[in-house]
Amino acid sequence: MIEEQLKQIREELSTYIKNSTNLKELNDVRVKAFGKSGLVTALSKNMREVAPEDRPKVGSQINAVRSELEELLKTKEAEFENAELARKLQEEQIDITEPSIKVEIGAYHPVADVIDRLTDICVDMGFSVVEGPEIESDYYNFEAMNIPKNHPSRDMQDTFFITDEILLRSQTSAVQAREMEKRKPPFKIVCPGKTYRNDSDATHSPIFHQLEGLVVDENISMADLKSMLTILMKRLYGEDTKIRFRPSFFPFTEPSIEVDVSCPNCHGTGCSICKGTGMLELLGAGVVNPKVLEMSGIDSKKYRGFAFGFGLDRTAMILDSISNIRSLYRNDIRFLEQMKGE
Ligand code: FA5
Questions:
Q1: 279 and 151 within one domain
Q2: Could you tell me which of 189, 187, 211, 216 has the C-alpha nearest to residue 290?
Q3: Whole domain around residue 40: which residue ranges?
C-alpha cells in the first residue's frame, strides 16, 4: 500500500520538478514534497502503520525517493541559476572597445600656484606662514605702519574705507604689527592674502594678492634682504632672471627699495605693459623702520628687521607670460584651459 503511494508521489513530484519554469515554482514543489505537511514528510510519519518487519525496506525506499527528488531539485535549480547568469552576462556586457568617458582635469589658478610656490620656497628658508584679516582696522593697516591719519603717504594706496576706522586692507603689511605684538624675536613670517585698492588698468586690479614677509632678529641689514630676495627670485624665475633693485620710499621701512623683473611681454625691450621700461615692478621691501618696531613693543636698539611685499598677481603674470591682469579674473574658459600645462 505505502509502496504504491510512494511510486505515485515520486512520479507526480518528478513531473512537477521537470515542468517548473522558474525558481519560485521549484520552491513550491520543494514545499509540497518536504514541507511540514509535504507528501514525503507525511509518508515518513506514516511508518507506524507499516508492519515492523517491513519497516527497514520501506524506510530505505522512502529515503531513495527522497534522495532522487532532492537530486532532481538541485539539478533543476542549477539550470535556472545558470540561465540567470547567462542572461546577466549578456545584458551587462561591457564593450571594452567603446571610447571611455573623458574625465575633465582642472588646473590650479595661476595666483594660487604662485602662492604655493612662494610659500614653499619661504618655508624652506625657515619662514612660518600666517594669515590676517581682509577687513582690517585703520590702526594695523596704516597707523602701526607709521602712516598717521591725514599723512600724504596714504595717497599711495587708494583705499576702500568701510567706516572711518575700518577698511579693506590695502596691503598685507597690516599683519606686520599684529605678528610683532604676538611674537618674541627672533622670528620670520610670511603672509599671503587678498588686498584691495581703488586701482584698475593692465597691471592693476581692485582686488589683488600680496605676500608679506617679515624677519626680526639682531644684526639684520639690507645685505640680508637683498641676498634673500635674490635667492628667492632665482628659485622662482630661474637662474638667468634679470632683477633690478631701485631705491624707493615706504613709511614703514628705512631704507626702502622696489624690486623689478624683466617684462614678460617684451622681454626687456619696452612695451605698453611695462610702460616702455622693459621691467615690471614686483615688490616693495626695506629695513623695518625702528619706529614701527617700537610701536609694536620691540626694542629697536636690540632688534632690527627687514620686510618685503610681493604683488602676487604680477608674479603670476611674469611666470605665465600673461599680459593683462584682468585675464586672471575674467573666468574665460579658453584662458583657464591654457593654464593646465602638459
Ligand atoms: C606695498 O603694498 C607695501 N606694503 C610693500 C612693502 C612691504 C614694502 C614691506 C616694504 C616692506 P606697493 O604699494 O608698492 O607696496 O605694492 C606692492 C606690490 O603689490 C607692487 O609692487 C605690485 O606688484 C602689487 N600691486 C600694488 N597695487 C596693485 C594692484 N592694484 N593690482 C595688482 N598688483 C598691485
A1: yes
A2: 216
A3: 2-91
> Which of 91, 118, 153 lies at the terminal end of a domain, its last residue?
91
Give the domain-ending residue among 64, 91, 118: 91
What is the number of domains present in the chain? 2
Rounded to the nearest angstrom, the distance between the alpha carbon of 113 and the centre of ligand 1 is: 19
Tell me: do 148 and 283 sit in the same domain.
yes
Question: Ligand 1 pocket test: which of 314, 318, 329 has the largest number of ligand atoms within 8 Å of its C-beta?
Answer: 314
Considering the entire predicted model, what is its pTM?
A: 0.71
Q: Is 170 in the pocket of ligand 1 (CB under 6 A)?
A: no
* Largest Cα span, the chain: 126
Residue ID of nearest Cα to ligand 1 atom 2? 171
From 180, 190, 236, 250, mutation site for ligand 1 pocket: most ligand atoms within 8 A of C-beta: 250
Q: Which residues of 230-269 are buried (b: 16+ CB within 10 A; e: fewer)?
A: eebbebbbeeeeebeeeeeebbbbeebbbbbbbbbbbeee
Tell me how far apart the alpha carbons of residues 328 and 108 are, in angstroms, rounded to a whole number. Answer: 12
In a domain, 104, yes or no: no
- Consecutive 10-residue runs of the chain (342 residues): their mean pLDDT? 82 91 90 88 81 85 89 91 90 85 85 95 97 97 95 89 96 97 96 96 92 96 95 85 91 95 75 80 95 96 97 88 88 83 58
